[in-house]
């Protein structure tokens, strides 16, 4: 029988998020700081890969391995990215892809999900997760994508119903699917199966712009790579996902200053958002 979590949602703010920033030490190296594997982007949407990689790199990790279909565009923006397979500590998959036309990417998604490493799944990878969910996966849908995920898992629901009650559906989806759900919107709702339910309401309305979700996925991927051991602990996936939403919202606010922004503006202000969180932790 489906078990639905309680209705109490815990607001997640800057002080909460500050505790989940991994700060390098004098003995850190690029491997100990976290390596993120990325399978995102396509010939139709290469920009999603560029935005996600940019955001991950600026959140603070040691290395990114990019294995998607937008290698030239990613390397043109971030030449330090590695475009060859190798060891990673977490995966970011799906942004900028379409579940109806995956080809080889479908195999790469399956490999990432079978690896038992922490995974952020977005866009075209969401239905792969719905078909084969497991612990350690965080999905980042908007309400229409969540409706498709639930449909693929056998629960039909209209996107409008999710949009009308996002908190309820985030919690219900987490328990139905057995994965941590970060449901995007004006307020971000994060629910872990039978675990924490946290909400973040920091992003300005200007954040509703093309590619902003790709930036959020990149931030979260970096956090999983830098906390690949802790993410196995109960409650950690939801708190890391909420921390990504805090960083994303702060970066958007810093970029906007009350005016319009584009997604790359958010990615470029991520270091300032991280710096602000670290400052608040010392206050």
Explain what the structure shows:
- This protein is α/β, with parallel strands linked by helices and 283 residues long.
- It has helices spanning 14-18, 46-59, 71-77, 104-114, 126-131, 143-152, 159-164, 166-177, 212-226, 236-256, 263-268, 270-282; strands at residues 10-11, 35-39, 63-66, 90-93, 119-121, 137-139, 180-183, 188-191, 197-200.
- It has one domain: UDP-N-acetylmuramoyl-L-alanine:D-glutamate ligase.
- It has a 9-stranded mixed beta sheet with strand order 1-9-8-7-6-5-4-2-3, sandwiched between helices.
- The radius of gyration is 17 Å and the shape is globular.
- The model is unreliable at 1-6 (pLDDT under 50).
**Residue share in helices?**
40-55%
List how many beta strands DSSP finds: 9
Helix tally? 12
- What's the pLDDT, averaged over the residues? 94
What's the N-to-C terminus distance? 46 Å
Strand content: 5-15%
């Amino acid at each position: 029988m489906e078990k639905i979590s309680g209705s109490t949602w815990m607001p997640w703010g800057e002080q909460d998020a500050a505790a989940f920033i991994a700060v390098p030490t004098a003995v850190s190296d690029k491997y100990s700081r976290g390596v993120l594997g990325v399978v995102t982007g396509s010939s139709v949407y290469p920009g999603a890969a560029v935005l996600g990689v940019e955001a991950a790199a600026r959140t603070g990790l040691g290395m990114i391995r990019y294995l998607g279909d937008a290698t030239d565009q990613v390397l043109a923006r971030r030449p330090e990215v590695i475009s060859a397979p190798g060891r990673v500590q977490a995966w970011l998959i799906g942004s900028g892809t379409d579940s109806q036309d995956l080809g080889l990417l479908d195999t790469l998604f399956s490999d990432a999900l079978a690896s038992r490493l922490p995974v952020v799944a977005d866009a075209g990878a969401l239905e792969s997760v719905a078909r084969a969910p497991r612990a350690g996966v965080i999905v980042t849908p908007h309400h229409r994508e969540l409706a498709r995920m639930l449909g693929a898992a056998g629960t039909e629901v209209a996107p409008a119903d999710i949009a009308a009650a996002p908190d309820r559906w985030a919690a219900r989806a987490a328990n139905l699917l057995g994965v941590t759900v970060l449901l995007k919107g004006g307020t971000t709702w994060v629910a872990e199966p039978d675990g924490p339910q946290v909400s973040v309401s920091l992003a300005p309305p200007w954040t509703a712009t093309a590619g902003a979700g790709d930036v959020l996925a990149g931030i979260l991927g970096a956090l999983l790579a830098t906390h690949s051991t802790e993410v196995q602990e109960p409650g950690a996936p939801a708190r890391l996902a909420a921390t990504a939403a805090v960083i994303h919202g702060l970066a958007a606010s810093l970029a906007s200053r009350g005016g319009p922004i584009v997604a790359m503006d958010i990615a470029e202000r991520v270091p300032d958002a991280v710096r602000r969180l670290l400052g608040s932790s010392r206050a």
